[in-house]
Design brief:
single chain; about 170 residues; alpha+beta; four-stranded antiparallel sheet; 4 helices
């Protein structure tokens, strides 16, 4: 039986979860590290609810379950194919997320660091622009609770991935 090199391995199957409960960052990294002996780099991104200068107490995130999962699955599958990832986990929370708590996690593992970095960036850029989540700011004093509009900067970041990879 011949050995299979990392470039001949079958594409990874991404882990996609949408959940209300928090996630264990270290456990998710370990899961990715064990996915393949060909992994040389693991890159993580954890998005955290910030206080917006002291005016925010939480974010309330809503989603359409079937549509959100399918959208993230498409993004994850595309990232694996494009960057040759050995493992990819994408976890997005919903519900009311207090300041300081985790919102989203992307763990990308690849043979080399650049593919892992690019894979994680690609996933986040597409999550911000295409995953159907709606965010409502919950202010500390309860007077300015409003839905967050999409930002132009997020769309501009995503545009870089439209050109075919070099």
């Amino acid at each position: 039986m011949s050995k299979v090199s990392w470039c001949q391995q079958a594409l990874a199957t991404p882990t996609v979860r949408i959940q209300s409960e928090d996630f264990d960052l270290q456990a998710e990294i370990e899961h990715a590290r064990k996915a393949s002996a060909g992994i040389g780099a693991v890159v993580t991104f954890s998005g955290i609810c910030r206080d917006e200068g002291g005016i925010l107490s939480a974010l309330h995130l809503e989603h359409y379950p079937g549509m959100a999962h399918a959208s993230i699955q498409r993004i994850a599958d595309a990232a694996i194919a494009r960057f040759g990832l050995n493992a990819l986990s994408v976890i997005h929370r919903y519900g009311t997320i207090p300041v300081g708590d985790n919102i989203v996690l992307v763990v990308a593992a690849a043979p080399h660091r650049q593919s892992a970095f690019d894979g994680a960036n690609y996933v986040m850029d597409y999550l911000k622009t295409e995953a159907p989540f709606w965010k409502k700011m919950v202010s500390t004093d309860g007077t300015d609770n409003h839905w967050v509009e999409p930002r132009n900067a997020d769309t501009e970041s995503q545009v870089r991935w439209i050109a075919p990879p070099a």
